[in-house]
Amino acid sequence: DVKVTQSSRYLVKRTGEKVFLECVQDMDHENMFWYRQDPGLGLRLIYFSYDVKMKEKGDIPEGYSVSREKKERFSLILESASTNQTSMYLCASNLLAGVEQFFGPGTRLTVL
Amino acid sequence: GEDVEQSLFLSVREGDSSVINCTYTDSSSTYLYWYKQEPGAGLQLLTYIFSNMDMKQDQRLTVLLNKKDKHLSLRIADTQTGDSAIYFCAESPGSSNTGKLIFGQGTTLQVKP
C-alpha cells in the first residue's frame, strides 16, 4: 500500500520562528511536491523536486525553501514564519511523469 | 499560462445526481483528473481521463471531456452523504514532463439527507 506521511497533522508556531515540515514517501518515487491549500484558491504549488538535491520553484515559492537530501524525504522550510503562511500544507509524490500523484494527510500550520 | 477553474460549491439531495464542472486552458494537456478530499484528509485520486477520450465511466462516476471547449465534468449518480467532500479538477500540462499538476479551486459538494 502506497504511503506518503507528513511529520505533523497540526502545528502552531510564532511569527519569526523557523519551521520545518517533513514529508516521507515509501514508494521510491522520483518526484515530490509541496502545495499549500487555502479556501477558494485550491492547491498552489510551492516547490517540487524531481531527484535528490534537485528542486524547482512552483507558483508561490516566496518565503519558503526546500531540501531533498534523500530520495524518500522532502522538507519544506519557512525561514521566518509569518501570519500569512497560516495554511494547510500538502505533500505529494509520483513517479517521473507518472499518472497519479499520491498525497499525504496534510499539516495544518497556524502562525500566531 | 495554464489555469483550471471550478465553481466553489454544489448542494444536492441524497439520491440525486451531482455534476461538477471544470474548465481548463492548456489544450495540450495529456491527462485530466478528479481528486476527492474528505474532511481532515489529503487528496485521493477518484478517476482520470486521457485527453484522446471523450468519456469514461467507473461505477457511479462518469467523466465527460469536451476538448473543443476545454470542459471537463464529473457526474456522480445516486449521490450519497458519504460523497460529501471537496472535489478538485486537475490537468497535467503538455509543456511539463515532470508529473506536475495544475489544480482548480475545488468544489465543495454538500449532500443533504
Question: What does this protein look like?
Answer:
The complex is a heterodimer of chains A (112) and B (113). Helices cover 0% and strands 56% of the residues of chain A. With 112 residues, chain A is an all-beta fold. In chain A, the strands form two sheets. In chain A, strands 2, 4, 5, 6, 9, 10 and 11 form a seven-stranded mixed sheet that branches. Chain A has a four-stranded antiparallel sheet with strand order 1-3-8-7, with no helix packed on it. In chain A, strand 9 (87-94) and strand 10 form a beta hairpin. The model of chain A has no long low-confidence stretch (mean pLDDT 93). Chain B has 113 residues and is mostly beta strands. Chain B is built from no helices and eleven strands. Chain B has strands at residues 4-6, 9-13, 18-24, 31-37, 43-50, 55-58, 61-66, 71-76, 85-91, 102-103, 107-112. In chain B, strands 2, 4, 5, 9, 10 and 11 form a six-stranded mixed sheet that branches. In chain B, a hairpin with a 4-residue loop joins strand 7 (61-66) and strand 8. Chain B is globular and about 45 Å long. In chain B, 35% of the residues are buried. The mean pLDDT of chain B is 91. The A-B interface holds A 4, 31, 33, 35, 40-45, 48, 50, 56, 90, 92, 94-101, 103-106 and B 4, 6, 8, 31, 33, 35, 40-45, 48, 88, 97-101, 103-106.
